[in-house]
Design brief:
Number of helices of chain B: 5
Distance between the termini of chain A: 87 Å
Oligomer: heterodimer
Structural class of chain B: alpha+beta
Largest sheet of chain A: 5 strands, parallel
Shape of chain A: globular
Structural class of chain A: alpha/beta
Strand order of the largest sheet of chain B: 2-3-5-6
Number of strands of chain B: 6
Strand content of chain A: 5-15%
Order of helices and strands of chain A: EHEEHEHHEHEH
Largest interface: A-B, 67 and 62 residues
Shape of chain B: elongated
CATH topology of one domain in chain A: Rossmann fold
CATH class of chain B: Alpha Beta
Mean pLDDT of chain A: 83
Order of helices and strands of chain B: HEHEEHEEEHH
CATH architecture of one domain in chain A: 3-Layer(aba) Sandwich
Mean pLDDT of chain B: 86
Low-confidence stretches of chain B: none
Low-confidence stretches of chain A: 174-181
Distance between the termini of chain B: 91 Å
Radius of gyration of chain A: 28 Å
Largest sheet of chain B: 4 strands, antiparallel
Radius of gyration of chain B: 26 Å
CATH topology of chain B: Alpha-Beta Plaits
Strand content of chain B: 15-25%
Strand order of the largest sheet of chain A: 2-1-3-4-5
Chain lengths: 191, 172
């Protein structure tokens, strides 16, 4: 996607600072992403990518939209953390929009902005290496590992019948409880 | 600290930068990474979805198809490992996998679909076969004859039996 240096604007939309600290970590000497040419910039107008954290609080929404508009095309969004990916633990509260997916809906309906290429990096917060992995994926250095998995249980009618027999078999042998009991009582009314 | 001292110290320490994306990284013991459901072990008991704080794990019934869907959305997971603690069969385990970055949100989902039992009387699906087999171990043999009834029909049948057992004041 982006073969040359990626300039990143860090956009916090009401995050708890956990992901922001991890973003600062990847610029520190131990996980040095400046070796890929990645650099934090102060203004969204200079940026190629947005390092997006937080679940987009209602108070933040107008500012987030302005910052989104200011980043020139083509742009790329790194949705860092569970909050940005799917709303996190606040996904259904009243004060929160709920992640980039809901933000894109608002952007498209209200402003007609098409959703940019997004890299989802889940984690609470993600390891610095996990962020590097996402960034390296944007640069085309590594391939995606995560895949959608669907498992469907397949049961024949025969195995279903076997299960029923297993469950009922012992019940028939040792039947203590007999339904439809009529109990005679002393002094009760007889019909 | 003089300049010479600084240079010698820097040379002694050497390189600290990891070679990460080009070399594999070992995570420490007890690291909580991506949760994975083992579909062979899962019984669909909904214990995990009750314990999950952000409801990344949701269990819902598809009544038309007669399946119970265990839906895990890793994008919302906070990696607290409560599902692992609470799972009665050990089907959910948190692996050491942390490279979860994806280009589309759809890749972050995992579905496990389990077949459900239909009620003998009303025909409504109410529980999975695996859950019935699992809970049958806990039941007495004579308690099992109402296992294929949904909770509503079971309550109805018990109350009918109580009504039919008239006058049994001492027993009822």
């Amino acid at each position: 996607m982006f073969e040359k240096s990626l300039w990143v604007f860090h956009l916090n939309s009401g995050s708890c600072n956990g992901c922001d600290i991890e973003i600062l970590n990847i610029f520190a000497p131990k996980q040095d992403v400046e070796r890929f040419g990645i650099k934090l910039v102060g203004s969204p107008r200079h940026a190629d990518a947005i390092a997006f954290t937080g679940p987009v609080t209602r108070e933040c929404l107008p500012k987030v939209i302005e910052a989104f508009k200011a980043v020139p095309e083509p742009k790329i969004v790194l949705a860092i953390g569970s909050c940005a990916c799917g709303g996190g633990i606040w996904y259904d509260t009243y004060a929160v929009i709920g992640g980039v997916k809901e933000l894109y809906k608002i952007l498209k309906e209200e402003y007609g902005i098409e959703p940019p290429t997004t890299i989802y990096i889940p984690g609470c917060p993600p390891k610095p290496e996990a962020i590097i992995y996402g960034v390296a994926m944007a640069r085309g250095l590594v391939k995606q590992k995560q895949k959608r998995e669907i498992y469907i249980e397949e049961l024949d009618e025969k195995t279903e019948r076997d299960i029923v027999e297993i469950l009922f078999g012992e019940a028939k042998e040792t039947r203590h409880f007999v339904p439809n009991i009529t109990v005679k009582t002393d002094g009760g009314e007889d019909e | 600290m003089g300049r010479f001292k600084l240079i010698t110290k820097a040379i002694n320490i050497g390189k600290v930068t990891e070679k990460y994306p080009f070399a594999p990284l070992e995570v420490p013991e007890g690291f909580r990474g991506k949760p994975v459901i083992d579909p062979e072990k899962c019984i669909g008991c909904t214990a995990c979805s009750n314990a999950c704080p952000p409801q990344a794990l949701q269990v819902y019934d598809d009544l038309e198809r007669g399946v119970r869907v265990v839906h895990l959305f890793v994008g919302r997971c906070i990696f607290c490992a409560r599902c692992q603690d609470v799972c009665p069969t050990g089907a959910i385990k948190l692996t050491k996998e942390f490279e979860l970055a994806t280009l589309s949100e759809e890749d972050l989902h995992q579905f496990v679909e389990l077949k459900m039992v239909r009620c003998e009387e009303c025909g409504k699906p109410f529980d999975t076969f695996r859950h019935l087999l699992y809970s049958a171990k806990e039941l007495q043999p004579w308690e099992r004859e109402m296992m294929f009834l949904c909770p509503e029909c079971r309550a109805k049948r018990i109350s009918e039996q109580l009504i039919s057992a008239k006058g049994g004041g001492g027993y009822v």
